[in-house]
């Protein structure tokens, strides 16, 4: 099928289903880590995986739409500074890992390293810098508080995506048939 | 396990009858205004108005009671965190200092800090009634049409409507997978230690996500067959034309947003001070 204006159909559907998954995992899939106010948000592993699979635009929009809907449906009001940061995480992971062709079943050591460098960079930019700065700009909250929150959330998300995201991507990679994996028998 | 969520209530009230697009515009302008202003007078007026509108909508308390508790808890935590991290933020902003009570060390309660935290609390309180109302009174089917109407690309609007459509399905999948995992002795509760708990979580996430990816392929194949995205525009079954009440609501919120911006920045500062 010829490429038409804007998003492809699979991207549109991936954004829709990805956002729905983001909402459900954001509500049920978080595990308290034992440190106060910090939990393992498995939903960011999902976001990273979908950014890897469906690209930066899907990542950006899943972060934005999913986070807005999650906040709105379960908590009554979206927290926009963090919504934007979630979108940014998806965008950066999608951009940085665009060379990984996981759909062809390639997810070995090299791809794992690329993926993790991408996710650490994305989480660092989004949670150490953008989220606190937006908190200050939009809500004029004290700098110490928002930077501490960002630091804790960012570190937790890096670990979550690093462990759970990588495992999920590897599991997905195994379900795909490797390109060039046919062997000639005698 | 079954979590309550804010969903459309389908009553008949002036707020329910407004079109989705009008409500969306009102909500967006309202949130942006509340985000910008730190003017106590504007915030108080907006809070009062939002409560009046809330009353008009006749939504039942039981439909949103559960979020109020969550919001209240979050509110308290946030207020405490602000004080713990920055007990003199108010003094810094308003440039004066009136000590009320000295606690310990650097913690002194000042009138400025109390006023600042009151403003922070008001800023949240102003958005919450309209956010809840927006979710309770907007038909999800109409929501996508409204997004498209205010200028969002229809493919993105359609993605949002897909998300709303599939949230209940995915919640059901999640529950089924997690119940069957629990039946096989995979414990997700706090009785397990953290590493084991994470491992158990992964054994639920993997089937959930892999089946969702299959679902994505199935839905996109179906949409492809029906020629989704072939045209530059699309029409919406649930779309309604603007009525007088819609123009009135949009006009009012524009006026409020403009007034709030003017009052806030009239004296050159975002913060209104009583000191």
Keywords, separated by commas or semicolons:
heterodimer; A: 186 residues; mainly alpha; two-stranded antiparallel sheet; 6 helices; 72% helix; 3% strand; B: 275 residues; two-stranded antiparallel ribbon; 69% helix; globular
Structural class assignment of chain A: mainly alpha
Number of E-state strands of chain A? 2
Basic shape of chain B: globular
Portion of residues in helices of chain A? over 70%
| Topology order of chain B in helix (H) and strand (E) letters | HHHHHEEHHHHH
How many domains of chain B? The number is 2
Q: Radius of gyration of chain B in whole Å, from Cα?
A: 24 Å
Number of strands of chain B: 2
Distance between the termini of chain B: 50 Å
Strand line-up in the sheet with most strands of chain B: 1-2
Task: Give the assembly state of these chains.
Answer: heterodimer
Alpha-carbon distance between the termini of chain A? 38 Å
Low-pLDDT sequence parts of chain B: none
Mean pLDDT of chain B: 88
Largest sheet of chain A at a glance? 2 strands, antiparallel
Q: Name the shape of chain A in a single word.
A: globular
Give me the side-by-side strand order of the main sheet of chain A: 1-2
Q: How large, in whole angstroms, is the Cα Rg of chain A?
A: 17 Å
Order of helices and strands of chain A: HEEHHHHH
Per DSSP, the total helix count of chain B is 10
